[in-house]
Amino acid sequence: MSVYDQLQALNISLPPLAIPAAAYVPYVQTGNTVFLSGHIARKDGKPWVAQFGRNITTEEGKLAARAVAIDLLGTLQHAAGGDLNRVKRIVKLMSLVNSTSDFTEQHLVTNGASELMAEVFGAEKGAHARSAFGVAQIPFGACVEIELIAELA
């Protein structure tokens, strides 16, 4: 099944290329590896402002991370010349989770993005290395920011 068949089955429409909010580019490619800049969680088109351990649950966070992953896929599609079927493997996700010092479920929040990558690309291509960090703040007060590294064919 192609990536696009899978996206359609999941009822996912990819957004256009995200416009950077500061002095950086959305992605950089070197060889067959593409590095996507961090994308923040958005809700209703605006930053999804929240802090884990204070005013957002882990389950809501999984949804936020999944939404970030969809935005990342839109950028990855652009980086892949418009064809996500060129993705050979999702190599790594790095997730920053806006959380209080006593919140310890950053890894569970990040599962929202990791699980989507496996759904879209399959268990082998979608499996990836990962880091999930709790941080004191993220730009705009967003609850989650995720960056991605992928290998293209």
Automatic annotation (TrEMBL):
This is Enamine deaminase RidA (YjgF/YER057c/UK114 family). It comes from the Bacteria. InterPro entries: Endoribo_LPSP/chorism_mut-like (IPR013813), RutC-like_sf (IPR035959). Pfam families: YjgF_endoribonc. Residues 7-152 form the Endoribonuclease L-PSP/chorismate mutase-like domain.
